[in-house]
Design a protein that fits this description.
The chain is of the alpha/beta class. The chain has two domains: 96 residues, 2-Layer Sandwich (Nucleotidyltransferase, domain 5); 163 residues, Nucleotidyltransferase, domain 5 (2-Layer Sandwich). It has 14 helices and ten strands. The strands form two sheets. The protein has a five-stranded mixed sheet, with helices on both faces. A hairpin with a 4-residue loop joins strand 7 and strand 8. The longest helix has 18 residues. The protein starts with a strand and ends with a helix.
Length: 282
Amino acid sequence: MHLIVDSGSTKSDWVLLKDSSNESFNTMGLNPFFHSEETVYKAIAENLNLFGYRDEVTHLFFYGAGCSSEKLNQIIHGGLSKVFRKAEIVVDHDLKACAFATYENEPAISCIIGTGSNSCFFDGENVIEEVPALGYILGDEGSGAYFGKKLVANYLYHRLPKRISDALKNDVKLTKEEIVRRVYMEPNANVYLASFMKFIFEHSDDAFIKEMICKGFKEFVEVHVCCYQDYKNYKVHFIGSIAYLFKDQLSDACDFYNVKMGQVIRKPIDGLISYHLDQMNA
């Protein structure tokens, strides 16, 4: 059996390719920047249905956020191999999954905008990353972590409209102490910051929030799309929950830079499955 995995920093989608049908599973996101081999093992073991196939999987393809070097990939590989002992395991970058899932038999720029953000150029054979992903502290423009950071910073600076500030204070019960603790003293600060996207989406009609989203997407396109030579000549595809939920605002940012928007997909897993099935049947 073949097991295909797409893992962001927040959650992972697992699909087992079976003869008659596919079976799907979910676990926490597994990112080697933040998680150990043991964490990978425990995350899988906690999903008893997935864990039950541990001796039946023969090929496992894991595409994940943070899987950008041999050293980092080995962390994920080590955890997976403790569970799927009979499987041939391949660990690769989530950018490659993004490229495979959006490929339309022509060169294109493929982007991820979810908890974090990144982009690549894919010609059908080579995945080219023009600028690096710098993570939620230095980069991740236009991502959930980016917008969450903007929101809580403006909340603490008393720069939010009263309606938004009151909602964070009274409904979310947000305090400076909690923000500092979750961002600076606990793991997975990027996931915590991205969790504010639910609040941002619910208040997306507010002028301040609209402007924040607009600026963030323009910054993403400027940094991660306009960096490619002749970018105006290629379709630009997007994958990720933030790109999907704020598609109209993202489209406006693309129009601003004369970018040809292509597919906007919430999850790459379906396209990734199709790609692997094509490869298996080739």
